[in-house]
Amino acid sequence: MKKIKPWLPAILFLVVIAMLILYSFYTTPQKMHQIPATGGGHPNMASDGYREIFHLLGTFSYIAGVISFSWIRFKKFLSSPSPLVKHMSKAIYHLHLFTGWTALVFGILHGSYYLLTEQLTHKGMLNGIASFLILLVLAVYGWLIRRVRTQIMRKIHSYLSFIGLVVLFIHTGGHFIITVAGTILVWIAVWLMGFFTRHVDIRTKSTVIHLDDQL
Fold first, then answer.
1. Virtual CA dihedral for 126, 121, 114, 60, nearest 10 degrees?
2. Is the pLDDT of residue 133 over 90?
3. DSSP assignments along 89-142, one per residue
4. Which of 67-76, 116-125, 140-149 has the largest mean confidence?
5. Residues 154, 145: contact at Cβ < 8 Å?
6. What's 205's DSSP letter?
7. b/e per residue, 1-20, with b = 16+ CB within 10 A?
8. How many DSSP H helices and E strands does the chain contain?
9. Which residues contact 80 (CB under 8 A, 6 or more apart)?
10. Global pTM value
11. Mind spelling out the 3-state secondary structure of 62-94?
């Protein structure tokens, strides 16, 4: 029972998130981020200038989210034989804390604008709310990890981060794939740095041992 309790809030939120996404598929498709003709928006906030700014904040939000997610792989590089990779991984740890909260704050700003200027039935609104909720749950569990240092809390946060990628992809579409692909390329590049460093160290040690034998 003690192991189940930490999961309960996450499960409840995931049920709500799933319902929002499923319902969004059945709502009438309309042009995303279209200003309603009558009511439902502040006329001054509906200008193209504001629209571009808040749209850009949404883009920054999911990019920050993906950067924060990249820590899930970088933490495995902490044991890399390459000093550079170790330093990079430590830097990513501190960066992922910052970008995680940045994703949430930018998401709030982005979502608040469209909630004031859009109707909930517009395409992208419901799964946008779902995206905000998953960022919120991730932020809360990330905050709790630093205070409740248990393995189960880390697992919940880790599993939620993978679900978060799916939810963000549903909301953002193709641009999200480019961001994730870039993250994977960075992972591969860092892994190769550690791989080549390990093999250079092995060859160097082998050469030294061989010379010692000859002496």
1. 40
2. yes
3. HHHHHHHHHHHHHHHHHHHHHHHHHHHHHS-TTSTTHHHHHHHHHHHHHHHHHH
4. 140-149
5. yes
6. H
7. eeeeebeeebeebbeebeeb
8. 7, 0
9. 86, 89, 190, 193, 194, 197, 198
10. 0.72
11. HHHHHHHHCHHHHHHHHHCCCHHHHHHHHHHHH
Separation CA 105–CA 109 (nearest Å): 6
Rounded-to-10 torsion of CA 73, 74, 77, 83: 160
Nearest to 133 by CA among 40, 21, 56: 21
pLDDT for position 65:
85
Residues 6 or more apart in contact with residue 124 via CB below 8 angstroms: 24, 32, 33, 171
**Nearest-angstrom CA–CA distance, 170 and 123:** 11
- Token output for 47: 């200008």
Q: Which amino acid, one-letter code, is at 172?
A: T
